Amino acid sequence: MKKTVYELQQISVWGQRYPKRKMHLNRIGLFDSLKNAEESMRLYIQAEKEHYKSWGRNDYKKECLGYLISSLQVLHRELQDFSHHPKWWSYNADGEANDHSLATESGEFYGHPAEEVRFQVGDIVEVLGYNCIELAIVGMLPPTSERYEELKQKWLEKHNDCPSLMDDSDDCYLVYTIGEGDTHQHIECYKVFPPSKPVPPTIARKLRDTINKQVQS
């Protein structure tokens, strides 16, 4: 049986100007359980806030969007199993739960419970990219568990069996960012956060104009 460890990373922010800011993932450590990773995260946050206070600074939340915890398999001599999909959990700068991935370790996804969908169409959010965080506006919600069951029933009406109809890439929001042309992106739910600071009205208007143009086209 393969052993699972949990990697804790801090989402560090460089720069303060919206709509896009540079981001860096700072590895804090590996832990033998999700519980221990979460407890260590809270100890780390407490220490970070004390450090900022001792430095006479009050900008901890300006430089930290939040935290990520991911599950990793410990390998011995075997090659990596690419059919294994890590689990992800995200947290805000205070260590409060933000969202988590819902696909199984084999990548199957059976819909997002409607009561756990944090955002609605038209909400302005911050999304985590490869090396940046960026303001976006929600254009479509992740498919719900009810939607999955609807698709399953339609499939069974035509076929004898029912394979997995969705995978981990389907557990996402469709969002639009500011830019030219079609700016839509599919962002995994755990990478979508509420804005960490007030959004200037001019940027909010540009985001709403962007989604309105897409709806009208």
Q: What key attributes describe this structure?
A:
10 strands, single chain, alpha+beta, 217 residues, 32% strand, ten-stranded antiparallel beta sheet
**End-to-end gap:** 52 Å
Percent range for helical residues? 25-40%
Q: Output the number of helix runs.
A: 4
Overall mean pLDDT stands at 89
Low-confidence segments: none
Strand content: 25-35%
What would you call the quaternary organization? single chain
- The total of beta strands comes to 10
> What Rg is obtained from the alpha carbons, in whole angstroms?
19 Å
Structural class designation: alpha+beta
Order of helices and strands: EEHHEEEEEHEEEH
State the major sheet. Answer: 10 strands, antiparallel
Overall outline: flat
Task: Please explain how this structure is put together.
- With 217 residues, the protein is α+β, with helices and mostly antiparallel strands.
- Helix content is 25%, strand content 32%.
- The chain is built from 4 helices and 10 strands.
- It has helices at residues 34-54, 60-63, 145-158, 201-216; strands at 3-14, 20-31, 64-74, 88-92, 97-100, 124-128, 132-140, 172-176, 184-188, 192-193.
- Strands 1, 2, 3, 4, 5, 6, 7, 8, 9 and 10 form a 10-stranded antiparallel sheet that branches.
- The longest helix is centred in the first third of the chain and has 21 residues, at 34-54.
- It is flat, with a radius of gyration of 19 Å.
- The mean pLDDT is 89.
